[in-house]
TrEMBL record:
Residue ranges of every copy of the DUF2520 domain listed in the record: 126-251
Matches recorded under InterPro entries: 6-PGluconate_DH-like_C_sf, DUF2520, NAD(P)-bd_dom_sf, P5C_Rdtase_cat_N, TM1727-like_C_sf
UniProt protein name: DUF2520 domain-containing protein
Source organism, top-level taxon: Bacteria
PANTHER family membership: CONSERVED HYPOTHETICAL ALANINE AND LEUCINE RICH PROTEIN
UniProt keywords, alphabetically: Oxidoreductase
Residues of the signal peptide: none
GO molecular function: oxidoreductase activity
Any Pfam family the entry gives: DUF2520
All residue ranges annotated as the Pyrroline-5-carboxylate reductase catalytic N-terminal domain in the record: 2-87
Length: 259
């Protein structure tokens, strides 16, 4: 399959890396030509300066840019490649954003967190596809199945629910790790001592219902511990962490009182 990529960030990099092995990557465009050139050099692609240089005979164009940039990108792309299947990789952007402009449109969303310095296990990464046309959906299904063992044809509404859930499960939980590190750093305590606890909590979350696995002073109603923790945060002059601690504790109590 001949594929071009719009974007040169983390998602574009990882997609190019995995697609390069089985497919023909042709061109890459980015607002930063230097970034496009770096990606092109790694995966034997042509970096281009404008959409006007796009090859209209490719099989697929993947838009891997920020969500807010997608509407403008599809408006511009459509003029130069009106007959090419174009997909975005967003979890929260509705298919209609593409479909209202470009008939052959679709979604190719990997449910994963991407960092350039970390490898991705594509075989176990869920891929979600959607297309305006059944034939194009089968096309995307074939492509997705060449990368992952977990491929799903989900609607835009279903995909949005996953994206929201991912923010809680990934982005917010990672920020909780960050807050935890700030607390122990203030007392010169090694953050790695929390690694076994973090890993065990994650294991329980994927093996059992997270609600059933919840522990901690809030749901035990241990007011002494809650007050002690709040006092420590006040001494640290960390009203920001204190607010988060109070809100989450209150939410935990309300959640588990409703059992």
């Amino acid at each position: 399959m001949r594929i071009s990529i719009i974007g040169a960030g983390r998602v574009a990099y990882h997609l190019a890396k995995v697609l390069h092995a089985e497919h023909q990557l042709t061109q890459v465009y980015s607002r930063s030509f230097e970034r496009a050139q770096r990606l092109a050099d790694q995966f034997n692609m042509q970096a281009i300066h404008s959409y006007a240089e796009l090859n209209p005979s490719v099989d697929l164009i993947i838009i891997a840019v920020s969500d807010q940039s997608i509407p403008q990108v599809i408006q511009e792309l459509h003029h130069y490649v009106p007959n090419v299947l174009i997909v975005h990789t967003s979890g929260s952007t509705h298919l209609d954003v593409l479909k209202q402009v470009h008939t052959r449109s679709g979604v190719f969303y990997p449910l994963q967190t991407f960092s350039v310095e970390r490898e991705i296990d594509w075989c176990s990464t869920p891929l979600f596809i959607e297309a305006n046309d059944l034939i194009d959906q089968q096309y995307l299904l074939k492509l997705a199945s060449s990368l992952s063992e977990k491929v799903y044809a989900y609607s835009s509404a279903q995909r949005l629910s996953l994206h929201l859930a991912a923010v809680f499960a990934c982005n917010f939980s990672n920020y909780c790790y960050d807050m935890a590190k700030q607390v122990v750093d203030a007392q010169s305590v090694d953050f790695s001592l929390l690694y076994p606890l973090i890993l065990e909590t994650a294991q329980k979350a994927v093996q059992q219902d997270p609600r059933a696995m919840q522990t901690g002073p809030a749901i035990r109603g241990d007011q002494n511990i809650l007050a002690m923790h709040q006092n420590m945060l006040n001494v640290m002059n960390r009203s920001d962490l204190s607010q988060v601690y109070t809100l989450l504790s209150q939410q935990l109590v309300e959640r588990h009182q409703s059992k």
